[in-house]
Amino acid sequence: MTERVRAASAPAGEVPRGGRGAVAALVAACRPRQWLKNLLVLAAPATAGVLSSPEALAACAAVFALFCAAASGTYLLNDVHDAHRDRAHPRKRHRPVASGALPVPAAVAAGALLSVAAPLASLALGNLPLTALLTGYVLLTQAYTRRLKDVVVCDLVTVAACHVLRAVAGGVAVGVPLTSWFVIVVSLAALLVVVGKREAELRADREEAAGAVRPALRGYTTSYLTQTRTMASGAMIVTYCLWALDQAEGARALFHAVSIVPFIMFVLRYNLLVERGVGEEPEEIALRDRPLQLALGSLAALVALGIYL
After folding, report:
1. Where are the chain's structural domains?
2. DSSP of 224-239, one letter per residue?
3. Which of 116, 222, 255, 302 shows a CA-CA span of 20 to 30 A to 141?
4. Is the pTM of this model over 0.70?
């Protein structure tokens, strides 16, 4: 019973004590909960109205799997590179590599294999632009791990760019054009999430330990990150409103217009959670916060009605 409680309460990416050996440690180090981010590959096909096609759904599923593999490879190699920092962190020290549950050679081998296999496997889809995007994603994440994560501002832009690459890859996979509205909203949303994560880390009551694990945090102030988050939120709301009000007339236009309400509620709710200091793990917020889920669900339903009705 005690082990089940520990397993249920263990943060994402960590192995509870009494785990089932190296396999369990490897799975935990792949951070399956963070695969939620890869659902961004559905964004462009969904807004283009092609998800009703079985071929499009199959292509999106394949791209989702490829990004999950590439991301897991990145997480493994990142944990190896940061193991010495993670051991100084009150929560990250329990990660499989930092804690010793996953041997470094095994993590390096699995990480390298997944990072290389994802772009190579994408060749089977016969879509060279998609392969280029996956390759660019892997190279960008490795540059982030090796250097960019320690450079102020560059770390924000790099992580946000990785999110945008996911969204662009979904559109490329099914051959739908990406509108300027789509790219701008996704880019601003990605920046909002990344800045919120950094701000939550600073707001946590362990600034000294956080700076030791993520040196770039020493270059930020809470007020700067708050201002950046506010800017991204405002620009994203304005851009989404312009897109929603620019849709075709009739019932579809009504659904798009009404979707502005849950969109704004989502942004407001997320900002509130960051102010409370709980934005360190965005995927955990998405899985646990009911008001945020309700806003997202309402937004998705209204946009779907406006596109597919």
Report:
1. 19-127+141-150, 179-309
2. HHHHHHHHHHHHHHHH
3. 222
4. yes
